[in-house]
């Protein structure tokens, strides 16, 4: 309750008393006293309430004052702390700036000192240069005087004397340079040959291979000669049907319990042998049955070719090969070159290439892949006019092989340019596999003819006395006349003979040409 409300109540009460008194003229004195008493009591209560209210308001105002003053003091203290911190930072910056200014002043002093020192040195150098230039002019003048005196004494001009000196020094330099170049070449050859032999020997030692076993005929053994009549058939119709279906020749002669199957294609010979085996076991031999069995055998051989190819690439750890290339790898099993099985040769080359590439720090996987595929041109079912190396390169490109693999296939017989380090490795390993003892088998007549041709080619050169082909034709030793062939000519003769062999002859591997010149001085004491 506020003071205004109390006053209003008092006025209302007094008004009521007044009104009551005016309307009730008959009120008694007791009523007036009672009213006065009540009014006094109300007034007293109003004053007491007003006093309490005043105290409450003063207490509330005091509390608000104290609270505001505390907040003000806290805010003031916080701002004061911020001001102190900012003042400290400002002082620190001033201190750092003062230090930097001091350092800059010291650096400026040092720079000024260095400039003065440099200027002093430049002045000294300039004076020394002037002195040197003056002495040089004096020396040139003295030299010119001496040259004139020497020209008068020697009757030669300076240019003529200089030319004679240059000619003498040039001849001496050419002689020394020739000696140094020859020595460097010999050292390089020795080192290169040693390292190459080391790599090749280590590669060969880590590879095991088979000897040649293939030929151009197959022998089919039979239990009795009575079966020969069934195979020939009435008027030879059965054997004609067999030859027409298989594409090979069946030789039925007096050889006991044997029929010879002859043909240059090993796949056809194998189909013919298996077909004949099935026909003999079944007993029913007639043209219709022959055609049915041959077709079934062809299908089985195709499945076997794919299986052989897959097994080969799995054994060698080669992945991602195109199915057609896998099939060609399988067909290698039925091909041969100089009696050497083509699949075994390719596997051997692949292993040699991987080993040699690893020894040389190259990509062994690509080398192994190229080694396996280097002769795929030999098993292509068509008969193109391209050499097998170029054909194999085209097939590899067709089936998206790596460019280095394609180049290695095409260049292993020098029929295209080599573009990677893998290509010469394939060529070397192919020669190693083909030229090792027991790898290939040639006819005796062609073998002897090749040796005779080698010796005849060497003896056709002037100055050659004798020639011997040794080591199965892999080395040619030539004895020359020492009176007509000097040491330098012997070296050139060896090179010329090797080049002519490369151009005119066909041979596996490589041929070493050794020219021997012997000088004998003979006298008799009598």
Describe this structure in words.
The protein has 15 helices and eight strands. With 526 residues, it is mostly helical. The protein starts with a helix and ends in a 9-residue tail after the last strand.
Number of strands: 8
Helix content: 55-70%
| Rg calc | 59 Å
Proportion of beta-strand residues:
5-15%
Shape: flat
Q: Mean pLDDT, nearest integer? A: 78
The structural class is mainly alpha
Most strands sheet: 3 strands, antiparallel
Within the largest sheet, what's the order of strands? 1-3-2
Number of helices: 15
| Parts with pLDDT < 50 across at least 5 consecutive residues | 208-214
Characteristic terms for this protein:
526 residues; mainly alpha; three-stranded antiparallel beta sheet; three-stranded mixed beta sheet; 15 helices
Structure at a glance:
Residues 342-435 form the HD domain. With 526 residues, the chain is mainly alpha-helical.
Could you give the topology of this structure?
Layout: H1 3-23, H2 29-154, H3 158-205, E1 217-221, H4 226-232, H5 237-246, E2 249-251, E3 258-262, H6 266-282, H7 287-316, H8 323-331, E4 336-337, E5 340-341, H9 342-359, H10 364-373, H11 388-398, H12 403-411, H13 422-435, H14 444-459, E6 464-470, E7 475-480, H15 487-504, E8 512-517
Parallel strand pairs: 7-8
Antiparallel strand pairs: 1-3, 2-3, 4-5, 6-7
Helix pairs in contact: 1-2, 3-9, 5-7, 6-7, 7-8, 9-10, 9-13, 10-12, 10-13, 11-12, 12-13
């Amino acid at each position: 309750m506020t003071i205004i409300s109390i006053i209003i109540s008092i006025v209302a009460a007094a008004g009521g008393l007044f009104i009551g008194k005016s309307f009730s003229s008959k009120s008694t004195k007791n009523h007036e006293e009672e009213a006065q008493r009540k009014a006094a009591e109300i007034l007293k209560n109003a004053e007491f309430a007003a006093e309490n209210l005043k105290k409450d308001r003063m207490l509330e105002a005091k509390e608000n004052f104290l609270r505001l003053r505390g907040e003000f003091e806290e805010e003031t203290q916080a701002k004061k702390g911020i001001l102190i911190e900012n003042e400290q930072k400002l002082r620190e910056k001033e201190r750092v700036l003062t230090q930097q200014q001091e350092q800059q002043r010291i650096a400026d002093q040092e720079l000024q000192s260095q400039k003065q020192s440099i200027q002093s040195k430049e002045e000294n150098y300039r004076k020394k240069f002037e002195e040197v230039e003056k002495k040089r002019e004096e020396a040139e003048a003295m030299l010119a005087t001496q040259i004139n005196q020497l020209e008068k004494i020697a009757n030669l001009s300076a240019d003529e004397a200089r030319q004679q000196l240059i000619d003498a020094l040039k001849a001496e330099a050419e002689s020394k340079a020739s000696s140094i170049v020859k020595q460097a070449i010999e050292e390089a050859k020795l080192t290169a040959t040693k390292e190459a032999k080391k790599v090749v020997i280590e590669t060969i030692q880590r590879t095991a291979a088979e000897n040649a076993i293939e030929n151009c005929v197959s022998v089919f053994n039979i239990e009795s000669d009575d079966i020969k009549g069934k195979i020939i058939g009435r008027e030879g119709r059965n054997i004609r049907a067999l030859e027409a279906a298989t594409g090979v020749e069946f030789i039925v002669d007096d050889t006991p319990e044997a029929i010879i199957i002859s043909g240059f294609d090993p796949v056809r010979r194998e189909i013919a042998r298996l077909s004949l085996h099935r026909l003999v076991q079944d007993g029913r031999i007639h043209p219709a049955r022959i055609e049915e069995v041959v077709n079934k055998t062809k299908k089985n051989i195709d499945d076997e070719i794919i299986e052989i190819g897959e097994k080969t690439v799995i054994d060698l750890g080669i992945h991602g090969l195109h199915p057609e290339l896998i099939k060609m790898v399988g067909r290698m099993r039925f091909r041969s070159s100089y009696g050497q099985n083509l699949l075994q040769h390719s596997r051997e080359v692949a292993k040699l290439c991987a080993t040699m590439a690893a020894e040389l720090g190259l990509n062994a996987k690509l080398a192994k892949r190229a080694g396996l595929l280097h002769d795929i041109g030999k098993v292509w079912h068509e008969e193109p006019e391209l050499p097998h190396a170029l054909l194999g390169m085209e097939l590899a490109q067709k089936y998206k092989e790596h460019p280095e693999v394609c180049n290695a296939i095409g260049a292993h017989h020098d029929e295209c340019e080599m573009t990677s380090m893998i290509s010469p490795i394939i060529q070397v390993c192919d020669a190693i596999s083909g030229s090792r003892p027991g790898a290939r088998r040639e006819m005796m007549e062609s073998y002897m003819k090749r040796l005779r041709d080698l010796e005849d080619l060497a003896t056709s050169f002037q100055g050659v006395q004798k020639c011997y082909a040794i080591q199965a034709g892999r080395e040619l030793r030539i004895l020359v006349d020492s009176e007509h062939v000097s040491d330098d000519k012997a070296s050139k003769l060896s090179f010329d003979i090797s080049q002519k062999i490369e151009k005119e002859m066909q041979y596996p591997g490589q041929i070493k040409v050794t020219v021997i010149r012997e000088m004998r001085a003979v006298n008799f004491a009598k």
